[in-house]
Amino acid sequence: LPMAFKDVNARRHIGLQQLSSLAFAGRTLLGPIKSCKFIVDESTNQSTLICSAVRLIESLDLTSAAGQLLNETIQAQNKEFKTGMSTLLFLTGAWSNAVLECLQQNVPVSAIVSMMSEGLNSCCERAQCLQISIHDVNKELCSNSVRPNAFKSKTCQAGRGGLLNTQSFLYFQKDISAPEEVIPINSCSRQEDDCNFNNCLVSPLASFGSIASLVKPAGDKSTSLISGIGVTASSCNKQKLTHSRYFNTLGKSRFSSQQGNFQGYLSGQSADPCECYGLGHLAMTLSHGNQTSMKLLQSIVAYQQERAECSGSSQFNIAEIVTCCLLGLPESYSCVSPGFVTLVSPEQATVVKYFEDKPLQILLMDGDLTEQYRHLGFNRPCNVRTVLEHPSLQEGRARDLWLSSMLDILITFEVDLVLVKGNVCENLMERCIANSILVIGCVTRDVLCAFGEVTSAQPVTYLTQLNASCVGSGAQVELWKACDGRAMDLGELVPVRIKVRGIPLLTAVLTTTVASKMQLIEDQFWTLVYRLHHALNDKKVFLGGGAVELLCLSHIQMLAEQPLQPANKGALKEFHNPWLAASATEYKSVVLQALASGWKQYLSVVMCNTAKAASEWEACTSVDDHLKKAADCGCPSAYILKEFRRGDLLRGGSGPFADHGEGLKVYDNVTAKTEAWRRALDLVLLVLQTDAEIITGPKRNQLLNSHVSSEFMFL
């Protein structure tokens, strides 16, 4: 009979086994150093390169119910946080295996659900002691940034490895109204004790009014100080800038003006002007080794902070950031470009050349520019019968009349540029090109809002609603030029830049010559952007580098080893369901050890993926050694915090930040990480309970007459 039950157990929990198998495919995606995978379509033999759990799950053929639930869970995490999906995927597999082991030991499903849920809740509460406020992070990073050993030339040496091309400089492009040149932001910020601004020039960017950039004089080989790192260190000197007309107010330096303008992003106002430039540092600590995206984000942060000084806007606004992916250029051409950079057809590019250096009348449309488009909530007349919903484009005078009338409206109001949120009718597009009207579709709502604010254009849903007050002015368009000043023609698509004086919009232009890497590079950039965004929203971060997971592992093992007596209410304070006390007493240690095994596997795989351990056995030994030291210390959180400050926690002298020494710490998002934990466990327990409630097969009568029949629901 016991063997029969084991067979039934194995058969009825196929969902957990499927979760485990799917999660196993994503083990190499865990940690800061990920191993990319090629996903091959067997029907077409086409392949794509993926390096995230989202793209992995999207690329797999998920036919099972468990696979669909896993996909929905990961998509929900991605939609809300854009980070934490690899952690979610791995822990789903690890805890699925842990639950299966509990079932093999005949642990009741009710005990597994209650104990694991309470155990994770206890971990989340315990991990709060490893949270650090953004205020304290910036204060610490600012103080570290002036240490001679914090970011020495080793930073540049680390950049010469596989993660960063030697010539990979970050360029922040100037406005086309000024002479065409670019401001290089050195990829490796080298700082010395005597930071000095005397060798730097300040160059105002004309189109933004409030932005000034630090550039090096010709022939100067010292490192540019525009990045968040350099500015932070140099700001400690409290020197005033008098070269720019924007910072010549008496008694007020560029750095002191930052105080009090943090718009609530930091926990309280800082008395130290250095702290106001900590976002560049914070971006680095959240990058987890992604150097290219980090440099792009640091330039964005530097620009937005400069702009916030004079305009009073928020220090970091994710709605003002867009991306444009250019295939065919080396990755060293990636840059941050003011305005809106997008791709158009060669035919549209001829219109762009015609419009260069001319002020344009601009129109914004918040729907599709097609004849069939109707806004959300549109109600058709009840007394009208539709004979033909979508007539052919080539047939009927009605369609030609619509095209002619739409074109007449645009010509009447002298519209030169149309930005459309949705799709554009191809026939209308061709007629507009013939009449020198540039129409660009699939523009995001944030871009439309940005142009609307600075051009006074009011979005319309249909062209028939257009009047003179809806048309904006002052827009300019040009062919986008790379960092060497050349306009790019990539064949089928041509990059163009649309800008308006004073627009806060920034485009991260992402380039690569490898088509399969394009999606990967864009995903990595947005992941870092949202990490910084969520860190500022949470106003706190977790200690990274495995610190939180190690504390959770130590805490769960401590709970599992504690004797738990039902009569002892004090011992049950970690678990809030008294009616489960008897079951918890009997199975507490087994279930909590199973939960702890997920954390241990997590840490071991991260160490292997980052080459901090040669094998999982060696990684487990290292983790056990830390657990023993933490237990001997008497206060695991204090031990982990001390090791984190020293930089010795699960580091082993390798990884993307090893050469930075103690000058750089790694941090993680609080809400995104804890939600990934909860979603992973919730998914596992949902599949567990679903599998446990549906029983089919010849063992029905045998189970019905057994002593465990109360655990099953018979259909």
From TrEMBL:
SUPFAM superfamilies, sorted: GroEL apical domain-like (SSF52029), GroEL equatorial domain-like (SSF48592)
Lineage top rank: taxon: Eukaryota
One GO biological process term: photoreceptor cell maintenance
Protein name: BBS12 protein
Organism expressing this protein natively: Balaeniceps rex
Encoding gene (name): Bbs12
